[in-house]
TrEMBL record:
The lineage of its organism: Bacteria, Bacillati, Actinomycetota, Actinomycetes, Streptosporangiales. Gene3D superfamilies: Crotonobetainyl-coa:carnitine coa-transferase, domain 1, formyl-coa transferase, domain 3. The keyword GTP-binding does not apply. One of its GO terms (molecular function) is CoA-transferase activity. It holds the Pfam family CoA_transf_3. It comes from the Bacteria. This is CoA transferase. Keywords: Transferase.
Length: 411
């Protein structure tokens, strides 16, 4: 576990201002990644309830939902009522000075508020504007609510997950949302590069459905090539054998012999070299055709030792292998192995808070660099952001007085 600090002397998005009008998962995850790359992200929230995920507990860290904490580090919170004319004007002013605007309002809402792409671009021609929806603007019907579990079903992701002959199974994490967040962050970075070269902003549209469909990768292409719905294969792989979990004498392992050379190494390490030359198993095509027989042979061999023993033997032999871990065990094991899987931030009410780091790392940490902002309290930075937008202390006080803005006592 390492203290959180900027990862580069010149963070890639340093100086980029992001107006984050999104909530729940896909949008906040994307803007958190932009913050991880150095962007100044202002999270616009409802003044009473804030982001929906603030209430999505248990589990809780104090009075903060773990769900919310997972998606909002590195940001500042502006809690403002966009139904209040002055509050809406402040959000419009934020969008007018932002480099990037990310929103996931229901279709039509941003336009009714004067926060749609055309409205923002009229005041801010170079803005990179991203609209996130469950189903794209051309979809029938485009106003369908876009929840991850619905999209897992609609996209085919759920149909690929589960045991052979069993029912479709929901993936354990909100994968459609996560893929959407990654697509948003990628597209925004690409648009910022184009803007730097041409001065042009643009309107990016990302949907959960299209993100999930693109995430089908080889399974989707296989369906197109064959014209046949893929079958569920449980812990195995549809087109590579052996590439699955196996029981050992005391626990499960994942073995991934992804080519013929690795398969031969596996056979030798198992003490079964004859399996490499068995005509049923010589090529991957042969192994897929005789999957059941080969899996039975490997399972019998692995039963003779423990998971720890086999991990050492197979690793030494150059065969990809890993344990099947629980979530906390996986995080702690990665941290202990030197992967710096977690970071700590100084939270204003929770104290030292441990978070999972982003999946990327930049070189050359900033000497004596400042700390990463913790997930903000609701309205923690309202007054500071409004001051930056040119509002006087008197106007800010009036907004707070009538409840159009919430300023958390902690600043």
């Amino acid at each position: 576990m390492t203290p959180a600090s900027p990862d580069s002397p010149a963070a890639p998005l340093a100086g980029v201002v992001v107006a984050d009008l999104s909530r729940v998962l896909a949008g906040p995850y994307a803007t958190m990644l932009l913050a991880d790359m150095g962007a100044d992200v202002v999270k616009v929230e409802h003044p009473e309830r804030g982001d929906d995920t603030r209430a999505w507990g248990p589990p809780w860290a104090g009075d903060q939902a773990a769900y919310y904490l997972a998606l909002n580090r590195g940001k500042r919170s502006l809690a403002v009522d966009v139904k209040d004319p002055d509050g809406l004007a402040a959000v419009r002013a934020l969008c007018a000075r932002a480099d990037v605007v990310v929103q996931n309002f229901r279709p039509g809402v941003a336009e009714r508020l004067g926060l749609g792409h055309a409205d923002v671009a009229s005041d801010n021609p170079g803005v990179v504007y991203c609209s996130i929806s469950g189903f794209g603007p051309g979809h029938v019907r485009p106003d369908r609510p876009g929840f991850d579990v619905v999209v897992q079903g609609e996209s085919g992701l759920m149909s690929t997950t589960g045991e052979p002959g069993g029912p479709p199974t929901k993936i354990g994490i909100p994968l459609a949302d996560v893929l959407t967040g990654l697509n948003v962050a990628t597209a925004v970075c690409g648009a910022l590069v184009r803007r730097a070269a041409t001065g042009r902003g643009g309107h990016i549209r990302v949907s959960l459905l299209n993100s999930a469909l693109s995430g089908l990768v080889q399974v989707g292409q296989g369906a197109l090539v064959t014209g046949v719905e893929p079958e569920r294969v449980g812990h195995a792989h549809a087109t590579i054998v052996p590439y699955q979990t196996f029981p050992t004498g005391d626990g499960d392992l994942v073995v991934a012999a992804g080519n013929d050379a690795l398969y031969r190494k596996l056979c030798v390490a198992l003490g079964r070299p004859e399996l490499a030359d068995d005509p049923r198993f010589r090529s991957n095509t042969d192994r897929v055709a005789h999957r059941g027989a080969l899996v039975a042979e490997i399972t019998a061999a692995l039963a003779a030792g423990s998971a720890e023993e086999w991990t050492a033997i197979l690793t030494d032999a150059g065969v990809p292998v890993g344990s099947v871990r629980g979530v906390l065990d996986a995080i702690r094991t990665a941290d202990a192995s030197g992967d710096d899987a977690t970071m700590t931030v100084a939270h204003p009410t929770l104290g030292e808070l441990e978070l999972v780091r982003p999946g990327f790392r930049f070189d050359a940490p900033t000497p004596g660099g400042g700390a990463v902002l913790p997930p903000p309290l609701l309205g923690q930075h309202s007054a500071a952001v409004l001051e930056e937008l040119g509002l006087s202390p008197e106007r800010i006080a009036a907004l707070v007085e009538r409840g159009a803005v919430v300023q958390h006592p902690v600043r």
